[in-house]
Amino acid sequence: PVFMPDTKAAAAKNENGEWVLSFNEAHSNPAGEDPDNFIVHHYNITITDESGKKVLKNTFIDDYFVIDEDDTADFRIGSDTLVSGKKYTASIVAVSAYHIKSEEIKLEFTAE
User: Fold this and answer.
1) Type and span of the H or E element at 69
2) Which of 20, 41, 75, 80 has its CA 20 to 30 A from that of 14?
3) What is the pLDDT at residue 79?
4) Cβ proximity of 17 and 65 under 8 Å
5) Contact 89, 51 (CB under 8 A)
């Protein structure tokens, strides 16, 4: 799987007080290769704080069992996971059903 060069990611707090990490989904058929080997099964998400300490590490399944027309993935983070005013880095890697990994995308953000 690959993320397109213009992939965007953002972190925001929703009306329930949860943090939501939103990003453009990875594509499953890079360069016309066999699409069955590149179906995006899940995303590995790691969030670290300013000192590099891991705050969260999780696996997130999006659109593998139920495919929708939306090309954005939304990963919910508990409201007590991040501290307001602190800076964080989110790392996202798409993983195929055959454990083939994409390049990672990163998002740096401040919890507000």
Assistant:
1) none
2) 41
3) 85
4) no
5) no
